[in-house]
Amino acid sequence: xxxxxxxxxxxxxxxxxxxxxxxxxxxxxxxxxxxxxxxxxxxxxxxxxxxxxxxxxxxxxxxxxxxxxxxxxxxxxxxxxxxxxxxxxxxxxxxxxxxxxxxxxxxxxxxxxxxxxxxxxxxxxxxxxxxxxxxxxxxxxxxxxxxxxxxxxxxxxxxxxxxxxxxxxxxxxxxxxxxxxxxxxxxxxxxxxxxxxxxxxxxxxxxxxxxxxxxxxxxxxxxxxxxxxxxxxxxxxxxxxxxxxxxxxxxxxxxxxxxxxxxxxxxxxxxxxxxxxxxxxxxxxxxxxxxxxxxxxxxxxxxxxxxxxxxxxxxxxxxxxxxxxxxxxxxxxxxxxxxxxxxxxxxxxxxxxxxxxxxxxxxxxxxxxxxxxxxxxxxxxxxxxxxxxxxxxxxxxxxxxxxxxxxxxxxxxxxxxxxxxxxxxxx
Amino acid sequence: xxxxxxxxxxxxxxxxxxxxxxxxxxxxxxxxxxxxxxxxxxxxxxxxxxxxxxxxxxxxxxxxxxxxxxxxxxxxxxxxxxxxxxxxxxxxxxxxxxxxxxxxxxxxxxxxxxxxxxxxxxxxxxxxxxxxxxxxxxxxxxxxxxxxxxxxxxxxxxxxxxxxxxxxxxxxxxxxxxxxxxxxxxxxxxxxxxxxxxxxxxxxxxxxxxxxxxxxxxxxxxxxxxxxxxxxxxxxxxxxxxxxxxxxxxxxxxxxxxxxxxxxxxxxxxxxxxxxxxxxxxxxxxxxxxxxxxxxxxxxxxxxxxxxxxxxxxxxxxxxxxxxxxxxxxxxxxxxxxxxxxxxxxxxxxxxxxxxxxxxxxxxxxxxxxxxxxxxxxxxxxxxxxxxxxxxxxxxxxxxxxxxxxxxxxxxxxxxxxxxxxxxxxx
Lengths: 427, 427
Description:
Distance between the termini of chain A: 25 Å
Order of helices and strands of chain A: HEHHHHEHEHEEHEHEHEEHHHEEHEEH
Oligomer: homodimer
Strand content of chain A: 5-15%
Radius of gyration of chain A: 23 Å
Number of strands of chain A: 13
Largest interface: A-B, 54 and 54 residues
Strand order of the largest sheet of chain A: 2-9-8-7-6-3-4-5
């Protein structure tokens, strides 16, 4: 296809009319497709129904340490669950706390703890009126929402194909009020980018003016490969050991997109004083997490190999969905120079960048056609994309057929917005 | 038996020798009994094994509102679980949030929220250097620990047979820095006292200088009757409605001592702005709680009647344990005027008050004999009982035989301490 900006006015008008016709046809048909959130589909959830069918007799109720999982106790979770997450996250079991269903909850609570009690022997963050956080953009809206909730002013740093722009980050952390950042280091939300080993090492190595600078290392998609060719993430704790910065990292993961979303098991990995502080707080916050659900998971998943086998089943469902969307985006948009998008090897999202100033309009056109996207702007702090350009596509939940329809509508909307901008038509 | 202080020195010495002999016999035998925490016994946990045996086919995976419990969504929990707790706690289902396994976690998070974000439109508590909380004593150590953790200076108010001393509370709340209190209004921990309707009404009616005064209403033992004659607790929200103070109350309950301790379901009941603030915070903290476990519980417990049937089974196990301890306390201590204790109609504890200045020594004697009590002092703020008099007995976990041994050891220790004080023997 030709660059749109290389078309004559007549050609452009014809191209515009065609896009409008395509769009109108879908609008008249009336669709109702939700691509807003990275939710697993029912078909994916079915993969874990063995967890529901495990009887008490099959499961037993004693953990590896002999504790009765039905009773109170065991603040850090059962040993086999800590070991499983340890293997998954590349840390010793002793550095793992196996927790409840939600890793978001763990991250929120850690930030809250830093605000009220400080970390690393420093003052509570809440007493620093200038407290700031680095926001890697585009990023995960729920991370930004936590930072905003706790009054951490966000400084945006753009993603690059190897992770966040480290030159900028190394500059920003010279300010002692900059207290940390959220990272999704593998298959990032929404770009699907995995940080390069060099990026991971620079995050571990960099000097931060704030001794209590903390990195929330959200391993949400740590085993969530889609294709045979997988991304590899360097072990941040191993690198941090080299630089004496293990305290800097608070890592979480969960089985939300391995087993059941919102009814799986989550975990923390941390070292040294950071781990100690978390345990001290947890000893006041909770008696113990749901160890029955931990044991249930460990009866079916004994090792990362078992989890990877499960992830291949997820990939078999998800891959055709990603392919369906990507094929249509390529077929409809390649060469036009009105949009760019990534082709992630894993994770839950495709990140689409349209012409500056047109993403909201594209979102509006889609919505009027019955297609709900992630709220445009949500991938930026305070819900405002300064370029109004990024659109997050979440292909996991709809069917392949729905996704094809959705991708066609989206492409038509992108074309309409680009043409109207060039033709000077006010939307 | 005769008052100890009415004995002659010879009689006292003989009584002392007898107690020491009894104590030494147990010490030589070597026991190992833990009565420290209010944990259910394995036999009680067995009562809920049907929850473990419920298969996916029996349970299904759709809640009453058609939502798939295996997936994200439903911040406030599934409707049938909200309704069940609503019935239990005496509030409409709309005023309930069905949550995860731990009500302690819910209380901690609410205090944390008040500290960082304030409540009722007032300033965050953390910015008030004089922030205070009322501590009803004796009380639950974990409540006190949360208050201490958040720097809420505790002002002790004694329990009376009808609940906390309301005259004192009404005085204390004239200080605008007094921000609230924890209450266990039914079968209080450790006294087993249920607040009288008048006490509940005064808590609802009282004028507090702090508009953001909050009462953490911990309904931990709301259905935990032991005998046919049950205590009745007035509905605090109904009374609060009369006085326009519904916002004042944050109530929680859980199935920890109904089904599985630490793997049950907990819930919040709240009204108006208080409920709104909690929902707003939760929308940032978590995507949804474990709805599978909620549905699992609702498949077996459809109403409070079902729960009461379960509680009768618990009572059948617990009652002989309470009776065994109480019978021995009566037989060994009545009339001596060296100790007093309650005879609760429900809950998990017997509260024993010994002579001023001797509780720690009694605890030490018991420990040296192999009997672990709840840390003496734990029932008071900062772990310090100013009278050194209160001992919490938790009879749920040991067997009846063990409890008999434990009660004999405890009585011997109480007698030894009393005699030594009168005889001027330095311990």
